[in-house]
């Protein structure tokens, strides 16, 4: 989803927002012909995401600016590590610096948080986990429970944020409303007001959409599950279930649909939820409550 066209459009808009009439400071302090080089440097540990966007911001400012990555997206880095170098006209380097960093810092923050959730889930499959924490049920559809994002993204930045989730080892949920049918509580309430039962509603939707369209239904109680299974939902989301009810929900669905758990998912709780045997855990915090990673641009050459 993160195409070069999307990247170019976004960074050009960000540069126009930041310097709509030029960079007054650079134009009055830096000679037009001065060139230099700088390094993108990590101030803390993290997971890389956004190197193409970092390069595109400088390239959009001046095509003569050259960037060279020293790491790949998805790789872990440590404080003090050089992640990329950039060289070219100093005025343009300084003008594009903040835009390039804003994108890369946020994307790396999302990748880093995602990696923490993935690590917490993967830990439950290690030897000795069950002896200390209790039984672990393997998911039916995947080798391990997946961590997925949501649509709770920053408006206009969804492609960047969803890409960053993948860099951190997570998976993407539907990209937008056009990608899949997802019947949530308000949809079900509207159908119930018209006298349409849950199983019938799902069957009705199935008749209207193409055979490749995925149907997901959100439930907030165990007693809704039999009707959703009967209706033929591809995925059943257990929303804000207790651990005990999540385990029971997995048993009731019995592999007849993908089981997704959602609702105020925290790093402290996610391992226990995964141990119930759900196939997917969707985490809104990956994009709506993330902290940007501290990255900086350090000059490699002395300027007169």
Tell me what the structure shows.
With 304 residues, the chain is of the alpha/beta class. The protein has two domains: 4-111 and 291-299, Quinolinate phosphoribosyl transferase, N-terminal domain (Aldehyde Oxidoreductase, domain 3), CATH 3.90.1170.20; 116-288, Alpha-Beta Barrel (TIM Barrel), CATH 3.20.20.70. It is 42% helix and 17% strand. The chain is built from twelve helices and twelve strands. It has helices spanning 4-18, 24-29, 51-61, 90-122, 129-133, 158-167, 185-193, 198-208, 225-231, 243-253, 270-274, 285-288, and strands at residues 35-42, 46-47, 66-69, 76-77, 82-89, 146-148, 181-183, 215-219, 235-239, 258-262, 280-282, 295-299. The strands form three sheets. Strands 6-11-10-9-8-7 form a six-stranded parallel beta sheet. Helix 11 (270-274) links the parallel strand 10 and strand 11 (280-282). Helix 1 packs across helix 4 (90-122), helix 3 (51-61) runs antiparallel to helix 4 (90-122) and helix 4 (90-122) crosses helix 6 (158-167). The longest helix is centred in the middle third of the chain and has 33 residues, at 90-122. The mean pLDDT is 95.
